[in-house]
Amino acid sequence: MEPYRSIEIVQALANGVDPFTGQQSPPSASPHQQAGTVRALHLALEGLTKLRRSTVRKTGPTRGWPEDEVQEETRFIIVPLNTNRVDDIRWLHLADPYDDDQRNGRPKFPYGKPVNPDITLHWEAGNSLALLGGGNVFTGEIKINAKTTAWPLDYAVRVLDSEFSFRIFARGQATGSGKALDTIHGRIVNVDLDVDANHDGKINETDERPEENPGGLACVCTNNLTPIELKLQPAGLPGKVTLYSNASTNKIRLWHNANRSGELAMGKVTGSQWKHEWAKPAGMPATLYVEGVTNSTAARDVELRLEYDENQEGQSNPLFKCEDRVRLTVIRVDLDIWNGGSDLDNGQSAGSQGAQVPEGSEVLIGAYVLVNWDDDDADGTMNADGTWSALPVPDLTENSVANEDNLAKLKPTVEPLLDTGSIELEVSGADADKVKLWTQRTKGTELR
Question: pLDDT tens across 255-270, in order?
Fold first, then answer.
């Protein structure tokens, strides 16, 4: 049996009315009219009403309803201005009004004329809100006739601009005792965490959609830290703001400045979550900088989440907080080089590879490479007297050289390799045209 029908039956019994015939029962003939029974019925009615509210809220499609309906009028429901997440959408739920209109199989109303159940849904929000329902977009009030409507009604709340506070009213028709009225207070909060997700060198609105997929990049062993921008509007909000990360300082580090000064302390919450909390939102910086420490093992495996929360201590109602997230992939880009071989010979076996240049000397000192004038593949023929019957062809002029041992080994590393983006190897400088890059130790294919 539906909860509303149970409520009707118990209400009728408490009023001394047969719930199936609508006939008034004489007090002397009905045990339901005894004082103790009436009190018990009213307690049962109160419990059924709470059950109905709870059932309606908990059966909504992944929607969190306020556990205490009083909070609708005494606290502000938070509606995010900026969100990419379906579970951050706020829904307005209008329950089937309990009245006396005899619809939906309810018993005949025994007292006077039933009230026509017209409901007006109205909101005071300037131009900041619209309600979406039934394939329609409503930017003003909505008139609803309960007799012709399938209940309950759900409307998605869409934010249209940055007016930051609102009230939504559900008004019943006027009666001799006034109008039935339910009110929801809310405020629009813009919590925004941004990164250069389209990799164009700047952060703007075009990064909003891809900020979680593909997300941004942070690099290991670089002086170019990745900026992230934090925003919270309007000013003067009473809640707290927290930045969460699923990566420890062994994976990334956060800095206040691009020169790696002023590290942001991240406290451990659980085994896989760290946070920094600003008790007053005014203390939150507008920009932080991400340094990669260890490369990702999978794309987008670092998540940063900026959350604004007005919940009371010990509570975590999703209607009183909102968030924004970005994802990052920590890339390790490394270019190692070995010195070229040191022997210039004519057809001898390949010599040893030169030593690897230490990481700290790669730029300041660099590697040496000999001009490749020797003949490692011995394609010249020398006579016993030291003259040549066939002149050697210098390795420098050939595309494939057996026993080649004068090239300098260059090893690029990119981890992890992603499905998007490109990898560039640039040769620059005044003498860039004096070197060639090959795919194999014996030359093979030249990279151009």
Answer: 999 999 999 999 999 8
